[in-house]
Design brief:
α4 packs across α15, α12 runs parallel beside α13 and α15 packs antiparallel against α16. The chain contains 16 helices and 14 strands.
Length: 373
């Protein structure tokens, strides 16, 4: 099998006023090679055996390779967004969780299940939002606004979560911020500026935001999307709220990965343009065999790449790396227990809040009952 190769990821976080962003100029990702058909069969069987022997279950994100998505479901695990990944790993009886995604997802699993072993195919699989929000700089930003409730996105390190009052994912951020705003709370948001702007527009909340962005969603371009829409006039446009505001403005539906899945199944259209990581297309096509899904463009006027929307760190998750992690214990996530206890507070608030909403409780009563630090 060919060796993996390393790609440089050329991006930097945007800079606004001092103390509200951190440049990340040098990032990289190690992309595993595609196994041959025979190697793929052998690796999947080896992983199935190791999962049984290790009392382990797979938890995979929608953005990882289809092989890892399918294998998770075939072996009793789950493919989902980060919120459901967190719930599933916490509640499952397996003593080893194998998280196929990026590092913050593995850390969250370990925080919620400190007694369990948490493995990842590659510990270097990171996230531009996490890399662009170092805890020291973010804490200093928080200290400049002591009157604000700190709400952070799940795409952050354990240390940043420990600094927060509330944690949110894209599937519950609007509900949490709306409830806090209704109680008169002022919000400090981090790290994704596009998601923060979207939430502020939707809720009218008083918000100051860290100036970060997702390397994938930040590259969607309204100019090219509008041209593609003209080529496919009957297509519905599904957009993740980490995308720029002018892209969101063109959407027929805006939401988390789970919300995008639901919209595609609910709408009667036969054709969709999708502005999120292209790893999502596997599940969309699997669940909607009679519908066509087109990648939204990521290049503006004069650009050369029109469908490059795949996170290079998500791409680091491969069958070889997964099998090796199960076999040897490589890729085990460790979180300092004291830090984990602090980080668990905002995570538990989010999980209690979303569980309460699901059970029909009013958001305002949930905020008051759960607390906001």
């Amino acid at each position: 099998m060919a060796s993996s190769f390393v790609i440089d990821v050329d991006y930097e976080q945007p800079v606004a006023e001092a103390g509200s962003a951190c440049d990340t100029r040098h990032a990289w990702a190690r992309v595993p090679p595609e196994p041959s058909p025979d190697e793929r069969i052998a690796l999947k069987e080896r992983i199935r055996r190791l999962l049984r022997e290790r009392n382990a279950v797979m938890v995979s994100h929608f953005y990882v390779h289809p092989d890892l998505q399918d294998l998770a479901e075939e072996t009793g695990g789950i493919v989902s967004d980060s919120l459901e990944m967190a719930r599933f790993g916490r509640d499952h009886a397996a003593q080893t969780l194998v998280v196929s995604g990026v590092r913050f997802m593995g850390e969250t699993a370990k925080i919620l299940s400190p007694e369990k072993r948490v493995l990842m195919p590659d510990l270097d699989a990171n996230c531009s939002l996490d890399l662009g929000c170092p805890v020291d700089e973010f804490s200093a930003f928080c200290d400049q606004h002591p009157d604000r409730t700190v709400v952070v996105y799940a795409n952050t390190s354990a240390a940043v979560k420990a600094r927060a009052d509330w944690l949110v994912t894209s599937s519950c951020a609007l509900d949490v911020v709306s409830a806090l705003h209704a109680q008169g709370r002022k919000i400090l948001w981090g790290p994704d500026r596009h998601l923060g702007d979207y939430i502020q527009r939707q809720t009218g909340a008083d918000m100051v935001s860290w100036n970060g962005a997702c390397i994938v969603h930040d590259e969607f371009k309204a100019l090219e999307l509008d041209l593609l829409m003209k080529e496919h006039p009957s297509a519905k446009v599904l957009v993740h709220p980490e995308s720029p505001g002018d892209v969101i403005a063109l959407a027929d539906a805006v939401g988390s990965t789970s919300a995008i899945l639901n919209a595609a199944q609910r709408m009667d259209a036969k054709e969709f343009i999708v502005a999120t990581d292209s790893g999502m297309l596997h599940k969309l096509r699997t669940l909607n065999p009679g519908k066509t899904f087109i990648e939204a463009p990521t290049a503006g006027n004069g650009g050369t790449c029109k469908s490059c929307a795949h996170c290079p760190w998500m791409a680091m998750n491969g069958l070889v790396e997964l099998a090796n992690a199960l076999e040897t214990g490589a890729g085990e996530i460790q979180v300092d227990p004291a830090l984990g206890l602090r980080a668990r507070v905002p995570i538990d608030r989010m999980l209690a809040f979303t569980a309460g909403l699901k059970n029909g409780q009013a958001a305002g009563s949930l905020i008051a009952g759960i607390g906001a630090a």
